[in-house]
């Protein structure tokens, strides 16, 4: 066979697997970003405080923290395809649990359903990302990952809009109106609200189940790890820049999840005429669309500037936008928060790259630890909810402000390697 023909066949061989994994990334990103609309919906359906409703993100991102390492070990033993199929089936079970949760209108069951879904998504993320990076030439790995992240961002961008149409009302129903209902009318109203989740989440259950079946029959290239050398997990704690990088991931994810979680509630608190919850959800779509735009342009931008300087610019820009949003009001304040998405778009790959610098064979262990840093998305929103309940929702945004301040510090000093694998 001629070299050109062999190269063409190799390219063809990875197209189908790449499209399959990108499809998975589209739907799991879309599914998890419906949470930002689910928060105000469950707040009303289950009559919750801001703190209680923010536990949606705690249940979801807490799963990443608890399951990332076991999922990685499972995938090491069973392979990437088994990890993706298992992730889809677990996510399908979680989505299916929304039906009994809606029937009982029991908030802990909603949280349990979200946790199970997130366990499935953790399996998908831990298996799909490295699989794409190894699916083809090493020189084009970053390009494949960038395209895949962009596809996932498209799903994340349309999720708030689709979710708002399914879960939020075209005309808002005030809390005063709800409180004025008779006991029986109130129960009927809350039951109807809870039932709104049945259609989207049962549909997701069927979708994930069908995708698992299809994936079972698709022949994916088997990719072996480059090395089987194992290192003690505790050895990673000698690398200061890596541990501080976990803190940066925690802060970045916590700030982003916190902002989009409270964006609808914040917009409604400003009492702007004609700005319903359904319309306010569009600002989350704008946030995610700007994340997509930033990721598409990020590869080019990073060729023109050093990573730590770009991180200073990104985190510093996000910090200033949140600060100005706190001290201003009206639509300007909401737009400032929406534009944070543009500045956060390339933070994660930069932090990830800086955190695993000069780790050698410890890189895989560090990667698992960094994924655990996603738990920031489980902790920062409840902090914001507590502040919102006791001081006011505008002041809740001080939490992401402090998070971005930490990322700026990490980009200035924290990323510096003081211990490397070669020392």
Q: What is the tally of helical segments?
A: 19
Strand tally, please?
0
Strand content: under 5%
CATH topology of the largest domain: Growth Hormone, Chain: A
| CATH homology-level superfamily of the largest domain | MFS general substrate transporter like domains
How would you state the average pLDDT, rounded?
Answer: 84
CATH architecture of the largest domain: Up-down Bundle
Secondary-structure element pattern, one letter each: HHHHHHHHHHHHHHHHHHH
* CA-CA gap between termini: 47 Å
Q: What is the overall silhouette?
A: globular
Mind explaining what this structure looks like?
- It is a single chain.
- By secondary structure, the chain is mostly helical.
- The protein has 19 helices and no strands.
- It has two domains: 218 residues, Up-down Bundle (Growth Hormone, Chain: A); 182 residues, Growth Hormone, Chain: A (Up-down Bundle), CATH 1.20.1250.
- The chain is 78% helix and 0% strand.
- Helix 2 packs parallel to helix 7, helix 11 runs antiparallel to helix 14 and helix 11 packs across helix 18.
Secondary structure layout:
Layout: H1 3-32, H2 35-45, H3 50-78, H4 80-96, H5 98-104, H6 107-134, H7 141-167, H8 175-179, H9 183-195, H10 198-217, H11 240-269, H12 277-304, H13 307-327, H14 330-338, H15 340-344, H16 347-355, H17 363-372, H18 376-390, H19 398-414
């Amino acid at each position: 066979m001629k070299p050109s023909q062999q190269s063409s066949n190799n390219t063809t061989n990875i197209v189908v697997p790449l499209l399959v994994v990108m499809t998975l990334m589209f739907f799991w990103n879309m599914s998890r970003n419906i949470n930002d609309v689910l928060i105000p919906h469950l707040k009303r359906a289950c009559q919750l405080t801001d703190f209680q409703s923010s536990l949606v993100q705690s249940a979801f991102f807490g799963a990443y923290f608890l399951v990332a390492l076991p999922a990685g070990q499972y995938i090491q033993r069973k392979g990437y395809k088994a990890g993706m199929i298992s992730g889809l089936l677990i996510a399908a079970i979680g989505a299916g649990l929304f039906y009994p949760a809606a029937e009982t209108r029991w908030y802990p069951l909603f949280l349990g359903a979200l946790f199970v879904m997130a366990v499935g998504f953790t399996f998908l993320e831990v298996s799909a990302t490295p699989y794409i990076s190894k699916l083809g030439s090493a020189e084009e790995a970053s390009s494949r990952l960038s395209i895949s992240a962009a596809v996932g961002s498209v799903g994340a961008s349309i999720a708030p809009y689709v979710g708002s149409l399914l879960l939020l009302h075209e005309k808002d129903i005030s809390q005063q109106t709800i409180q004025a209902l008779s006991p029986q009318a109130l129960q009927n109203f809350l039951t109807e609200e809870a039932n709104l989740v049945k259609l989207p989440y049962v549909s997701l259950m069927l979708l994930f189940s069908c995708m698992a079946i299809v994936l079972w029959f698709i022949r994916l290239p088997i990719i072996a790890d480059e090395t089987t050398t194992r290192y003690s997990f505790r050895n990673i704690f000698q690398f200061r820049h890596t541990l501080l990088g976990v803190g940066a991931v925690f802060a970045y994810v916590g700030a982003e999840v916190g902002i989009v979680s409270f964006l609808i509630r914040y917009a409604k608190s400003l009492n702007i005429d004609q700005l319903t919850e359904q319309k306010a959800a569009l600002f989350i779509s704008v946030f995610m669309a700007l994340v997509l735009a930033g990721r598409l342009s990020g590869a080019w931008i990073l060729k023109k500037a050093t990573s730590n300087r770009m991180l200073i610019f990104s985190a510093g820009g996000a910090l200033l936008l949140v600060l100005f949003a706190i001290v201003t009001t009206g639509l300007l304040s909401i737009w400032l928060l929406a534009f944070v998405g543009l500045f956060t778009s390339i933070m994660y790959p930069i932090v990830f790259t800086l955190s695993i610098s000069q780790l050698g064979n410890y890189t895989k262990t560090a990667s698992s630890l960094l994924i655990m840093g996603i738990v920031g998305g489980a902790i920062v929103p409840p902090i914001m909810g507590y502040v919102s309940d006791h001081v006011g929702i505008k002041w809740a945004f001080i939490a992401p402000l402090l998070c971005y301040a930490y990322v700026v510090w990490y980009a200035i000093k924290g990323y510096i390697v003081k211990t490397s694998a070669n020392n």
